[in-house]
Design goal:
The protein is α/β, with parallel strands linked by helices and 467 residues long. The chain has 19 helices and 13 strands. β8 and β9 form a beta hairpin. α6 packs across α9, α6 runs antiparallel to α10 and α13 packs across α15.
Length: 467
């Protein structure tokens, strides 16, 4: 049992709640209560892994509902949290399950998608481990193609029968020196323009369409596996340049070196213990007082979600995956419905509820300047690729924030996303003309902001459609 704890420790970076909040502060402005809640939830995962085995399985994750308007940072908080924990993360809209008929897409598909992400994550880690060995093997194979080994036929008497075998004959120092010379030329890039012929596996399978109302994803991968096993792998010869040949051979060698059984076993463990599913637009499937129309579909989706959130076992192409300890973070504006409109059983599975704040003009100013991925930093970096130095004066930044805030008040409040529309309109002309501009230093002043955006802002109809 102690071994299990040690194995699981590697999947979660052990940060204190305070450290987690500090990391989230680098990318997300405000929303301190939401950050505290997710920080505690993440730390509790690590705490659970330190608990003795008998009790560990009994401790369920404390799922979270984030209540707040669009564009205030709900998705970003969940996504950044997953990156901090190095966890497989999946964002899914609850409305996706209401699109077809009563229940839409199979609700279990989100667990299968999460498992697929985990397999890719673990596979990537394994690739990094075997990369040096795979490169070495790929180099040797490519040298074998460039300088084929000489062989001679010999006859051997064995138990009265003659057998023909090939014996590799090394022609001494001459061949070795030629091979080493080719190796040096390969590493220095002198052979990059040369073509070689490779046998490449053709992975295309016959096209089969399956019409099924449920479990379509399962049917698809089962058919692929059947055809993959029935039909022998087809290979085709291709002439490629040496760098491309090196990459193809490297991928083949990496695949050979990776133990897929070990990858799948590890991925199942990561999914079950560290998986995070962000369930957006949960308010759209919350029922209201009426008992007709789309509400039947909404309640159906809630009933389908319930066993997954409670903890069940889902069949995937990699094996059975338990959802008992997957962390679910739900989100929604809840401006028409409210969390109490959800099924009581589903409400009970989301014990932590956090209300996120509306963003003020001061928040907009901070969003433009402070985060590591601040909007102004992004635009400066984009235009720097064209040799343009973009300078934002302080009054201009305040004006941009004020305009975005006003448009949100007048039209639909889309939070910080409004800054994207305002900024894009502001630098539209510079972005278009950048490759041809002779002036390489552009200053965005308050007057420039007014010149570009004031007319749109004053005309409410224009601002509604443009900003």
């Amino acid at each position: 049992m102690e071994k299990d704890v040690g194995e699981l420790d590697q999947f979660v970076e052990v940060l204190t709640p305070r450290e987690i909040v500090c990391e989230l502060d680098k990318y997300i402005i405000g929303q301190n209560q939401a950050k505290r809640s997710v920080a505690i939830a993440l730390r509790n995962r690590w705490r659970r892994q330190q608990v003795p085995g008998e009790l560990r399985d009994e401790i369920a994750p404390k799922n979270i509902i984030m209540i707040g308007p669009t564009g205030v940072g709900k998705t970003e908080i969940a996504r950044r949290l997953a990156r901090l924990a190095n966890s497989p993360f999946l964002k899914v809209e609850a409305t996706k399950f209401t699109e077809i008929g009563y229940v839409g897409r199979d609700v279990e598909s989100m667990v299968r998608d999460l498992m697929e992400l985990a397999v890719n994550m673990v596979k990537k880690e394994e690739y990094e481990i075997v990369e040096p060995k795979a490169k070495e093997l790929a180099e040797e194979r490519l040298l074998d193609i460039l300088l084929p080994k000489k062989a001679k036929e010999v006859h051997v008497e064995e138990e009265g029968d003659k057998e023909r075998i090939l014996e590799v004959v090394k022609s001494g120092k001459a061949e070795t020196s030629t091979r080493e010379k080719l190796r040096r030329m390969l590493k220095s890039g002198k052979l990059d323009k040369r073509y070689v012929e490779l046998e490449v596996a053709n992975s295309t399978l016959p096209m089969v369409e399956i019409f099924s109302s449920a479990g379509l994803e399962e049917m698809e991968f089962n058919v692929r596996e059947i055809f993959g096993n029935m039909l022998p792998p087809r290979k085709k010869k291709r002439k490629v340049k040496i760098p491309e040949a090196m990459e193809i051979i490297f991928q083949e060698e990496s695949q050979r070196l990776i133990d897929m059984d070990k990858v799948i076993e590890k991925a199942i463990r990561v999914t079950e213990q560290n998986g995070i599913i962000f369930l957006d637009e949960l308010d759209k499937v919350a029922g209201s007082e009426s008992s007709y129309g789309p509400d039947v579909s909404r309640e159906g989706v809630q009933r389908d979600l319930l066993p997954i959130v409670e903890g069940s076992t889902v069949a995937t192409k990699y094996g059975m995956v338990k959802t008992d300890h997957v962390l679910f973070i739900a989100a929604g504006a809840f401006n028409v419905s409210k969390p109490s409109d959800l099924l009581p059983e589903l409400q009970g599975r989301f014990p932590i509820r956090v209300e996120l704040d509306f963003l003020s003009m001061e928040d907009f100013i901070r969003i433009l300047l402070e985060p590591k991925n601040a909007l102004i930093t992004q635009y400066k970096a984009l235009l720097a690729t064209e040799g343009i130095e973009l300078i934002f004066e302080e009054p201009a930044i305040k004006e941009i924030a004020e305009m975005a805030s006003k448009v949100n008040e007048r039209t639909e409040n889309i939070g910080a996303r409004r800054l994207h529309t305002v900024m894009e309109k502001l630098v539209d002309e510079i972005s278009f003309n950048a490759p041809d501009m002779t002036t390489k230093r552009v200053t965005i002043s308050r007057d420039y902001v007014w010149e570009k955006l004031a007319d749109i802002l004053e005309d409410e109809n224009l601002s509604r459609y443009i900003l």
